[in-house]
Amino acid sequence: MTTDRVTVASPATLSNLGSGFDVFGLALSEPFDVIEARRTSERGVVIESIEGRGAENITRDPTRNSAGAAALAVLEGAKADFGVVLKIRKGIRPCSGIGSSGASAAGGAFATNLLLERPLQLEEVVRCAAQAEQVTSGSFHADNVGPAVMGGLTIVKSYEPFRILRMDAPEDLGVVVTMPDVLVDTKEARKVLPQNVPLKSMVFEVGNAASLVLGMCRGDIALIGDSMRDIVVEPARASLNPHLLEAEQAAIEAGAAGAFLGGSGPCMIAIYDRSSGNGEAIASAVREVYSTNGIDSETWITHAGQGCRRL
Ligand code: HSE
Question: Could you give all domains of the chain from N- to C-terminal order, each with its CATH number?
Answer without folding.
Answer: 5-168 (3.30.230.10), 173-303 (3.30.70.890)
